[in-house]
């Protein structure tokens, strides 16, 4: 009886350990995007996010005007190749640009978002955020949760309809 309980306990611990490990170390993403040079897109908007100065969730400054980055985000989201463009940004942009790409992936492909989000939730790399009138340094992990991505995606999208 004790042996049977021990075997069951070891099995449960092994399954729990494997589940925990795969959550921390997800399998490599197999989805790929079309080659960037084959796509038609607004190069200026893409370059703006590639070298984004700040990450903001909408209106900035006293007047609540949209930052160049959020305008560029909206332009690329309207592109028929939006997934491909943001896929490349997520791979190659600076940290602020990568967060815009993560936000886009939340809207474009939630399964892919769930796969790549882990990297951001575990990242303490600091980004420059512009929230209203305040510019602050924020760890990526503080912004990369689903609730923040959903709120930011909705706010940015509603500001450009």
In short:
The chain is an alpha+beta fold and 161 residues long.
Give a description of the structure.
This protein has 161 residues and is of the alpha+beta class. The chain has helices spanning 2-24, 43-50, 68-77, 82-92, 95-108, 110-121, 146-159, and strands at residues 55-60, 65-66, 126-132, 134-139. It has one domain. Strands 2-1-3-4 form a four-stranded mixed β-sheet. Helix 2 packs across helix 3, helix 3 packs parallel to helix 5 (95-108) and helix 5 (95-108) packs across helix 7 (146-159). It starts with a helix and ends with a helix. Mean pLDDT is 80; it is low at 18-25.
Which structural category fits the helices and strands? alpha+beta
The residue ranges in which pLDDT falls below 50 over 5 or more consecutive positions are 18-25
Strand line-up of the largest beta sheet: 2-1-3-4
Count all strands and give the number: 4
- Could you estimate the helical fraction of the residues in percent? 55-70%
Largest sheet: 4 strands, mixed
**On the 0-100 scale, what is the average pLDDT?**
80
Number of domains as seen in the coordinates: 1
Q: Gyration radius, to the nearest Å?
A: 19 Å
Strand content: 5-15%
What's the total helix number? 7
Shape: globular
First and last CA, distance: 66 Å
The topology string of helices and strands comes to: HHEEHHHHEEH
For the structure shown, list the relevant keywords.
single chain; 161 residues; alpha+beta; four-stranded mixed beta sheet; 7 helices; 4 strands; 57% helix
